[in-house]
Every structure is written in structure tokens, then in C-alpha cells.
Amino acid sequence: MYGDPMIDHLGINCTDWGRAQEFYDRVLGVLGYSRQLDYEVALGYGRDGHPAFWIADGSRNGANGPNREVHIAFQAADAAAVRAFYDAALALGAESLHAPRLWPEYHEKYYGAFVRDPDGNNVEAVFHGGA
């Protein structure tokens, strides 16, 4: 691994949910990755409790068109950086998906903000140290 990772996690929407689960269970399994979180409509794969790659059922969120959104989360150095990311994105005309806040459903110190980029992707900044 080279230095600190820029990407915290990445998510894609899948058109055939059952087939996608079978595919990623098998191909990621041979690489030593497994399901870390299961929200029924989204699965997070990784190691050691950190889901770094997510698949989601695109039929549930209308994302099965030819230009399905991608979700990417960038690591932030602290909560102030998450807020700066959000403010910079809005200043550039990005759509707010979720203002900066704690997300205890992910874990107690998960602090993140979500915006939609100019191409319709769900982009997040996350800090794992709380607010």
C-alpha cells in the first residue's frame, strides 16, 4: 500500500441483483474479501470490518438506466475537511444529498457529507473520527 488511501469506499448499482451477489461473492472471495455489511438492498465487501466496495440493487432506486450513478467516498483528514468539501461542492453548483453529520447507522464516529457531482454521481467525504 502506498501512503494513506484517498478512496475510503466505492459503490456501484447493479441491474441483476442476484447475479451481482453471486459474482462478487465468488470473485472477491478468491481475493480474500467477504461481505462485511448487509443492508438487504446493498452489500459491503472488504476485510476486518471495513466495507470498501459496495454493490446495490439498482432496481430499488431507479438506477438501472444506461447511466447508473457511482458512489465514491473520499477520506477526509477531519470533520472540518468534510464541511469544507461540502461547502466547496455547493459553491460549484453541486446538489446536496446529505449535509455533514454523524451517521451512527454506519458506526458511532462516521462523519460524512454527500453531494451529487455534475455527472450525477453520489460523491462523499468521510471522516471516521467523529464530529
TrEMBL record:
Alphabetical keyword list: Lyase
Stored Pfam families: Glyoxalase_6 (PF18029)
Keyword Lyase: yes
GO molecular function list: lyase activity
Signal peptide residues on this chain, from the entry's feature table: none
Boundaries of every VOC domain copy: 6-128
KW Magnesium (keyword) present: no
InterPro entries according to UniProt: Glyas_Bleomycin-R_OHBP_Dase, Glyoxalase_6, VOC_core
Protein name, entry field: Lactoylglutathione lyase-like lyase
Species the sequence originates in: Mycolicibacterium chitae (Mycobacterium chitae)
